[in-house]
């Protein structure tokens, strides 16, 4: 009997994700990558950059490259609305980079048993989270922003 271990649900690893909309789909971004969320602003174009690279913004004196996640995922071009945001991601090797999303919805906390790992959903998605009755595709951030900076 001494070898039996009671697994407490509090021991499960929980992660927070910012839920964003891109098109009609919901995606989750691991909150540990998120440095800031800013309203749309003037993006200065950079000549001869990849088509998904929209340009740069000046964020409190720092020049931050901005990319379109829609174009990177082969969706239609961005349509900016009052809900559109630039999410500033902080990446160890690459510094900061902004990604344009259609809307920021909420922050959710998912435990490891609410995340289904996937391998065949494309290179940008590493799992599907279940929050209530909604499914949230979880971005593999390093793949999303790869080759941009």
Please name the defining characteristics of this protein:
149 residues, mainly beta, five-stranded mixed beta sheet, 5% helix
Task: Walk me through this protein's architecture.
The protein has helices at 69-72, 141-144, and strands at residues 14-22, 25-30, 34-39, 53-59, 62-68, 85-91, 95-101, 103-111, 115-117, 125-131, 134-139. By secondary structure, the protein is mainly β. The strands form 2 sheets. It has a 6-stranded mixed sheet with strand order 8-1-2-11-10-9. It is globular.
Protein topology:
Elements: E1 14-22, E2 25-30, E3 34-39, E4 53-59, E5 62-68, H1 69-72, E6 85-91, E7 95-101, E8 103-111, E9 115-117, E10 125-131, E11 134-139, H2 141-144
Parallel strand pairs: 2-11, 5-7
Antiparallel strand pairs: 1-2, 1-8, 3-6, 4-5, 6-7, 9-10, 10-11
Question: Can you give me a brief rundown of this structure?
Answer:
With 149 residues, the chain is mainly beta. The chain contains two helices and eleven strands. The strands form two sheets. It has a six-stranded mixed beta sheet. The chain has a five-stranded mixed beta sheet with strand order 3-6-7-5-4.
